[in-house]
Amino acid sequence: MMKPEVIAKASNYVFYANGNKASQQFIDKEVLDDPSVYPSEDVMKKLYSVTPWDPKTQRTATRIWTKVVTGQ
After folding, report:
1. Which residues does 43 contact at the CB level (< 8 Å), separation at least 6?
2. pLDDT at 17
3. How far apart are CA 59 and CA 71, in angstroms?
């Protein structure tokens, strides 16, 4: 999967982006031009990711969630 040619075949098959920039030359144009697979630069500027919690906060959230789903 680390070889650009291999991951490009997978992306072409599942119509899903991958993180290997070198593979883009092997990906079908239909996949590359699909904005739901590879969003435009304007859309990318609006996206964000959530940073992970520190271990103490994650542990607290996990314990609270466990109480919710178990009804305790």
Report:
1. 35
2. 95
3. 18
Report the distance separating Cα 61 and Cα 63, nearest Å: 5
User: Which stretches of 1-72 are assigned E, i.e. beta strand?
Assistant: none
Q: What is the pLDDT of residues 21-69, one digit of tens each?
A: 999 999 999 999 999 999 999 999 999 999 999 999 999 999 999 999 9
- In whole angstroms, give the CA distance from residue 37 to residue 31: 7
Q: What is the largest CA-CA distance in the chain?
A: 54
Residue 15 has φ and ψ, to the nearest 5°, of 55, 50
Each domain of the chain, given as residue ranges in start order, spans 4-70
